[in-house]
């Protein structure tokens, strides 16, 4: 079958990315190199050096320091988690193991939620706002962080975790953002920009549009040129919303309009991205972890092919049945 590899920065539920696996970066590195190195050697040769990332960043007009002397390292003494529920509790647990003070935020409606009880400190945000809007209030989150001597902010997943403006606002406030840089968040959150980044990195891709598509006429033209089946995707969103698979030319116009309308409602932008649809693909992800000094490790692969409505249901790690 077809093999699709999604490479991104960040942390989701993965057996080898659990906070409990190492009390520090060195501990994680030792675990990766000792316990799993034979699997790594047999499956992938996915290594990236600081110099390679420096070269790629320089070509893009950015800077990526690979010289440890130019990087300012300060211990993180306190972390605010800009999220709620299970993900916040997991981060708090890791903070406790590392001796880091944990700070929770909560909406008025969530004052009895477990994540508030599990943190060392908790503060209300977004008084008078609905729960979701409260957790999306960037000025409120920064206010809490600044007033309570917080060193770093962890976005969790969902909510603000894929908002480049949030990552930038945290940095502008003089805080540390535990996650990808604003540039990476922006690049990977935009399917068109992500596709271009893949092309620049010489990653094989399937045929797709070079830019956002805003009219059904453009969609019809692409389908006539590249054939069916195709998939319409929200250009500036994800999570399975704003997506339609089209297998008949008679369905192109109506499917495009429905997908675009759904994307507009969910993400505030109805622009679409179109690419050839791969029948029964294997969805393989390789997760990367890097720091600002250019040190990069990968956390092995997982198979995310079991999906419902374009959303992952089961993730299997290591991925079975891959060629060495």
TrEMBL record:
<dbReference type="InterPro" id="IPR005481">
    <property type="entry name" value="BC-like_N"/>
</dbReference>
<keyword id="KW-0092">Biotin</keyword>
<feature type="domain" description="Biotin carboxylation">
    <location>
        <begin position="75"/>
        <end position="324"/>
    </location>
</feature>
<dbReference type="Pfam" id="PF02786">
    <property type="entry name" value="CPSase_L_D2"/>
</dbReference>
<keyword id="KW-0547">Nucleotide-binding</keyword>
<dbReference type="GO" id="GO:0004736">
    <property type="term" value="F:pyruvate carboxylase activity"/>
</dbReference>
<keyword id="KW-0436">Ligase</keyword>
<dbReference type="InterPro" id="IPR011764">
    <property type="entry name" value="Biotin_carboxylation_dom"/>
</dbReference>
<dbReference type="InterPro" id="IPR011761">
    <property type="entry name" value="ATP-grasp"/>
</dbReference>
<dbReference type="GO" id="GO:0046872">
    <property type="term" value="F:metal ion binding"/>
</dbReference>
<dbReference type="Pfam" id="PF00289">
    <property type="entry name" value="Biotin_carb_N"/>
</dbReference>
<dbReference type="GO" id="GO:0005524">
    <property type="term" value="F:ATP binding"/>
</dbReference>
<dbReference type="GO" id="GO:0009374">
    <property type="term" value="F:biotin binding"/>
</dbReference>
<dbReference type="InterPro" id="IPR016185">
    <property type="entry name" value="PreATP-grasp_dom_sf"/>
</dbReference>
<dbReference type="InterPro" id="IPR055268">
    <property type="entry name" value="PCB-like"/>
</dbReference>
<keyword id="KW-0067">ATP-binding</keyword>
<protein>
    <submittedName>
        <fullName>SFRICE_002919</fullName>
    </submittedName>
</protein>
<dbReference type="GO" id="GO:0006094">
    <property type="term" value="P:gluconeogenesis"/>
</dbReference>
<feature type="domain" description="ATP-grasp">
    <location>
        <begin position="197"/>
        <end position="297"/>
    </location>
</feature>
<dbReference type="InterPro" id="IPR005479">
    <property type="entry name" value="CPAse_ATP-bd"/>
</dbReference>
<dbReference type="GO" id="GO:0005737">
    <property type="term" value="C:cytoplasm"/>
</dbReference>
């Amino acid at each position: 079958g077809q093999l699709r590899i999604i490479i991104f920065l960040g942390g989701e539920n993965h057996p080898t990315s659990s906070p409990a696996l190492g009390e520090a970066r060195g501990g994680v590195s030792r675990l990766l190199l000792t316990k799993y190195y034979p699997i790594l050697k047999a499956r992938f040769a996915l290594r990236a050096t600081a110099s390679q990332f420096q070269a790629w960043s320089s070509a893009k007009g950015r800077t990526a320091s690979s010289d440890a002397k130019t990087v300012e390292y300060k211990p993180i003494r306190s972390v605010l988690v800009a999220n709620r529920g299970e993900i916040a509790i997991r981060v708090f647990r890791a903070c406790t193991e590392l001796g880091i003070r944990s700070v929770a935020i909560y909406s008025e409606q969530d004052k009895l939620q477990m994540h508030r009880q599990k943190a060392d400190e908790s503060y209300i945000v977004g008084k008078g706002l609905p729960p979701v809007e409260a957790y999306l209030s960037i000025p409120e989150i920064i206010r809490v962080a600044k007033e309570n001597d917080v060193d770093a902010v962890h976005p969790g997943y969902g909510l603000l975790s894929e908002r480049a403006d949030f990552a930038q606002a945290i940095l502008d406030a003089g805080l540390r953002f535990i996650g990808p840089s604003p540039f990476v968040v922006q690049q990977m959150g935009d399917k068109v920009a992500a596709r271009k980044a893949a092309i620049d990195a010489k990653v094989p891709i399937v045929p797709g549009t070079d830019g956002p598509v805003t009219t059904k006429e453009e969609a019809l033209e692409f389908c006539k040129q590249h054939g069916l089946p195709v998939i319409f995707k929200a250009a500036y969103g994800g999570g399975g919303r704003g997506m339609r698979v089209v297998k008949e030319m008679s369905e192109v116009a109506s499917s495009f309009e429905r997908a675009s309308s759904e994307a507009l409602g969910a993400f505030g932008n109805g622009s679409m991205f179109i690419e050839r649809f791969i029948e029964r693909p294997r969805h393989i992800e390789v997760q990367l972890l890097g720091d600002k000094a250019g040190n990069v490790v990968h956390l092995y692969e997982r198979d995310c092919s079991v999906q419902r409505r374009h959303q992952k249901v089961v993730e299997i790690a290591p991925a079975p049945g891959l060629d060495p």
